Amino acid sequence: MAADPLIQARKRAERAVDGMEDGPLKIAAFQTILARLLSDADSGAQIQAEAKTPTRTGKQPDTLTGRILSVKAEGFFKAQRSLSEIREVLGSRGWHYPLTTLSGVMQGLVGRSGQLRRERVSEGKKKVWKYSNP
């Protein structure tokens, strides 16, 4: 029964990209949609599990945005941080996300809400986005 939500999410993601031409864009779209559906399913399962357990003090945030903001509240963004550094600190707390999911949420925290700022900086020969407090 545990695989049932996984199968449903996969089928929904397949239907979402059904009309797209085969290629890397379709694959990336499928991966992004599936990750989002699985994340939403995990959140739902977590909410159900929390409803069955007694109330805890120091409740952990249950959304990616909330988790990033909790790391921000601890001073993580005092120095500029790359997406891979953000992914690593979230992973060290048991919150594992693909970079594709993380990048969209980070852009939202920069643009719409102004919670963070980003700057394009050079790391060797590469240019990467770094995020920090505004």
Q: What is this structure's SSE topology?
A:
Blueprint: H1 3-16, H2 24-52, H3 64-73, E1 81-82, H4 83-92, H5 99-110, E2 117-123, E3 126-132
Antiparallel strand pairs: 1-3, 2-3
Short overview:
The chain has helices spanning 3-16, 24-52, 64-73, 83-92, 99-110, and strands at 81-82, 117-123, 126-132. The protein has 134 residues and is mainly alpha-helical.
Account of the protein in words:
The protein starts with a helix and ends with a strand. The chain has helices at residues 3-16, 24-52, 64-73, 83-92, 99-110, and strands spanning 81-82, 117-123, 126-132. The protein is built from 5 helices and 3 strands, in the order H-H-H-E-H-H-E-E. The radius of gyration is 17 Å and the shape is globular. The chain folds into 2 domains: 1-55, no CATH class; 63-134, Orthogonal Bundle (Arc Repressor Mutant, subunit A), CATH 1.10.10.10. 56% of the residues lie in helices and 12% in strands.
Mean pLDDT: 83
Order of helices and strands: HHHEHHEE
Within CATH, the superfamily of the largest domain carries the name Winged helix-like DNA-binding domain superfamily/Winged helix DNA-binding domain
Shape annotation: globular
The secondary structure category is mainly alpha
Give me the count of strands: 3
Which sheet architecture does the biggest sheet show?
3 strands, antiparallel
Beta-strand content: 5-15%
**Number of structurally distinct domains:** 2
What is the name of the CATH architecture of the largest domain? Orthogonal Bundle
Would you identify the regions where 5 or more consecutive residues have pLDDT less than 50?
49-56
The CATH topology of the largest domain: Arc Repressor Mutant, subunit A
Distance, first to last CA: 46 Å
Helix content: 55-70%
Order of strands side by side in the largest beta sheet?
A: 1-3-2
Radius of gyration, taken over Cα atoms and rounded to an integer in Å: 17 Å
CATH class of the largest domain: Mainly Alpha
